[in-house]
Every structure is written in structure tokens, then in C-alpha cells.
Amino acid sequence: MDTPNLEIQLKTLPSQPGVYQYYDKEGTIIYVGKAKNLKKRVTSYFTKNHDSGKTRVLVRKIADIKHIVVDTETDALLLENNLIKKYQPRYNVLLKDDKSYPWICIKNERFPRVFSTRRVFKDGSEYFGPYTSLKTVYTLLDLIKGLYGLRTCNYHLSEEKVDAGKYKVCLEYHLGNCKGPCEGLETEVAYNENIKAIREILKGNFKDSLQQFKLQMKALAENLQFEEAQKIKEKVEVLENYQSKSTIVNPKISNVDVFSIMSDEGYGYINFLQLSYGAIIRSHTLEIKKKLDETDKELLELAITEIRQRFNSKSKEIYVPFKVDLGASLKVTIPKLGDKKHILDLSLRNAKYYRMERFKQIKIVDPDRHANRIMAQMKLDLRLSEEPRHIECFDNSNIQGTNPVAACVVFKNGKPSKKDYRHFNIKTVVGPDDFASMEEVVYRRYKRMVEEEQPLPQLIIIDGGKGQLSSALKSLDALGLRNEIAIIGIAKRLEELFYPDDPIPLYLDKKSETLKVIQFLRNEAHRFGIEHHRNRRSKSALNTELETITGVGEKTIVDLLKHFKSAKRIANAKLDELEAVVGVARAAKVYNHYHDQLE
């Protein structure tokens, strides 16, 4: 796959937190950086005048940009740290592994200690973090110390030694900070109950502990100990803003390859995250063109073999979203929850973003391929017999039955063809009858197209539910076009798609491109119709009482009259009925206007 040029890469970067990597023309990574917004940060390198000579040289050497999307800025900071240590890029400050971010350890021992550390050992102990702020670590440890009396000594408190009276309580016991397990003054069961509560705090589930802290703060305030109460309050605030853990580093996930797949009708996108000693050290996404409508399972198996060979991976375990067959020597895990599932979800997010960026890049450099893909997807999603290269959408607009109009907008290859848009003034319908108006407009539109031998659309979209769709169908029947053109109706509220003779609506994924094209069509038809309606109203000098209300604009008037059908009904409407149509603020202005006059 050809690498897009830098200009196109910059245009299609996501506005998400993450880490970016710059490569030179030899494919060597020369810089790693973190960003709250990848698009803004990376673009700034190429748009600003840099004072530093080294930065100018760096920018000149950039030949390719890659990135990894993460959930938060904290995750970006941790991931940046991992990648710099792994690759030691030329233009980054060198980081060594002897000093890393702090963790909180629950030691694997009888009567476990809880303490901070920068070194992680595979000794069965539990590690929480890493933390980017030492203040958070100390606040957590202070909270734990204040709520639970734990030992701080490094004695080996085996049952035999405690029973033999080998140890004596220290000053911490006399200060009330420890309950004396070294002399058998605290049972192992009671101590482990405290450890269980502490484990929940470190996971972020500290509702009960916070409640105790707040009660303590309140008691101090009532006793006029305001300085102590303020200290407690500061600790509570830090804890409430504390991010419990990161999916970027977890010592339990060691030397694992993570794979996820995102596919459409033409391509599969497989993301690979490589984890070494619990840290992400590589992200790569492979694009595969389908030849024989391959399944996701077939594509993923093919990609895993290719990627592991390409990067010489020796990992004995992989995480994948579903079962794959790769031989008995490789352990395949399908995560369902916890950190393993989080890391798989992160891989899938990166596959999705890569796919979106490729679409944007293709739209710029190969618009025909982009249109072909959209058309193929719409044909599949909408269950059509042919691609909807030519789509027409209808919308009615009227105010109090005066100057009723309709709009027809036309899309060709998924894009607006504005020269083909048409306005219709309703001629045969008296009063605000949307169904009859729709029937008239559809009949007039296609009668003329048939007479003039113009090419008919492959799809008609009616802005409305079953009623409007049925009205439009009457016109197609009258013209003998029922089976010549596909037609659907879209209901506004739930985005339901109605088909002729099918009582059950179709619901598309809210993020699907097909639904976005349909919504664009519907919004264009509405905008175009309202625009024409305003022109007609101004020409006929229509001056309703609604237009004299301060703070109520034309769109609000249109929405009200489309819903209530007349100004009289609006005047008599209840406040909650108005709010349902135009919102609280505008509803109050309309309601107060009419009711102040009555008083």
C-alpha cells in the first residue's frame, strides 16, 4: 500500500488524544510525541515558524507520520514514555528504564504491606498504576493509612514466628497507626478484610471510603477544626479526580500480541498492538483488499501470520475478538472484561480510526473510488437491487396553509447536484395537507421526467413516515413507475426507514455512512424548502402575530406552525406542548406573549 503524502496525512489525522511518531525516508523512527489533540499538535509542526534549529531540521526530515489513538492524556503520556525507551529516537530526550512512573504495590506476603515503588517484580504481588503524579500516590497512601491501620515494618510475619513471640510492637502501634499483627493482636482475617477494601480503593471503587472521609471532614468542621477539615477536603478533591488505572501499562499482561479487525464490503483493516512486559511498544494497521468476499475470520488469520512474520514476533499468546485457528503452539485468548478487554478495545479503536483516515485520504486523491464504495454500501444497507447513483428527496413546507411549497433535492454519486434541485408551489391542495401535497409534488415531478425522457432516479426518499410514503406511492402507481424506482420514507424522530408494504421499519447504525447520506439529503431538502418558503412569505407580505414576538425567529415560527397548523392553536397551546416543539426558552416567550395579553 502506498503511503499518502504528508499533506494528505495531516488533513486526515483524528482530533483525539494519542501519540505520534515521525519517520525519515529510510523508515527510521526519529521522534515520538504525545498530544491532547493529534491533528492540532502534529499540524503545528508544519505551520509554525520554529525558533529552534533542531526542530527545523526534524521537520525537514519527516517523511511519514504514524500515530496511536488512546483514551486520555495520561495514557498518551505513559505510551510516549514506553516508545521513547523502546526506540530511543534521535530527536527525543533519552529515557532510561532505571527510573519509571510510580506504582502502588500490595505485597504478596502474610499481613501484606502497601507502599509505592518504581520497580515491578513478578513475585505474585499486586501492582496498581502507573501514576503520572506522585501527589496522587501520596494522597492515596495517606488515605489508606488514615482509614486502615496497616503495618509498615518489613518483618516476616509467619504464623510460627508470631506464635513464638519473636516480635514486639513498635511506636506505630502506640500511635494508633498499626493494630499489632506482629504480636498476634490482629487476626489475619480482619487484616485481609482491610486489604480487600484497599484493593477496591486502588481500583477506583472508593465510594464507602470517601463517605467516611466526608463524615470525618464534617465532624472536624463542627468542632471548629477548620484547618484539619480543609486538609481532608483537599484529599477528597484529589481522589474524586483520580484516574484509577491505565490500559497502556499492566504488568500482568506480558509479551502478548493483540489483534482486532474492522471491515467493509471491499477491505479489511487489522490493527496490531505489541506488548512487552506489560507496555505497548508498537502499533501497526494492515489494509487488505478482499478478492472473494472473505470473512473476517479468514482475513484475521491471514493478517496475524503476515504481521507476526513481518515484525518477527516471538510472543506465545495473542488476544483476538473471536476464535481463530493458528495451530496448537500459539495460545489464543478472547478477552471478555478487565484490562485485557480494554487493550483489545484500544486496538479496535485504532483500526476504526485508520479506516476513517483512509476513507478521507481516498476522498481527496481518488474521489471515484470513494463514491463507488459509498454506493456499494448504500445498496447493501438499503436492500436495493442496484446502486443509488441518482437519489431524490422530497420535503413539504407550509405555514397556516398559506403559500404551501415543497422541495426536491438531488444527489448524484452521494453528493448534492444543486443544479438539479427543484422548488414546487402547491397548486391543487387547499389548506395544510401534507399527504395530498406530497402526492401532488411526486406526480408532477415524475410525470414531467417521463414526458421529457429524463433519466429516472434509482431511489426516492420521502421526508416523513408511512402516511407521506403512501401518498407518494399513489403517484408512482398512477404513472406506472411503482416497480421502476425504489422508494423509502424516513421518520424524523427515531430515524426509522419505511418501505412499501412492510410494516416493520429498518433501523440503520447511527454511525453508518448510509444513514449519514440520508440525513444529509433530508436536511438539504428541509433547508431548501424553508428557504423558498421564506422568499414566498416575504413576497406576499405575510405578517402573522407570531412575527411580532421579540426573540422568536422564522425557524421557530415555521416549526410551530408545522406542528400546530394554525396561529390560533399556538395561542391556545399549553406551555409544555410548546416546549416539546421549540424548547423551554422560546416556548416561554410565545406563551407569555399570548397570556399577558389575556390578563
> Could you name the CATH class of the largest domain?
Alpha Beta
CATH topology of the largest domain: Nucleotidyltransferase, domain 5
Count helical runs. 20
- The whole-number mean of residue pLDDT values reads 81
| Unreliable residue stretches | 538-543
Q: How many domain regions?
A: 5
How much of the residues is beta strand, in percent?
A: 15-25%
The largest pleated sheet is described as:
8 strands, mixed
Query: Tally of extended strands?
Result: 19
CATH superfamily of the largest domain: UvrC, RNAse H endonuclease domain
Question: So, CATH architecture of the largest domain?
Answer: 2-Layer Sandwich
In percent, how helical is the residue content?
A: 40-55%
Structure description:
45% of the residues lie in helices and 19% in strands. With 599 residues, the protein is an alpha+beta fold. Strands 12, 13, 14, 15, 16, 17, 18 and 19 form an eight-stranded mixed beta sheet that branches. The protein has a five-stranded mixed beta sheet with strand order 9-8-7-10-11. Strands 2-1-3 form a three-stranded antiparallel beta sheet. Helix 15 links the parallel strand 16 (459-463) and strand 17. It is globular and about 105 Å long. The relative contact order is 0.06.
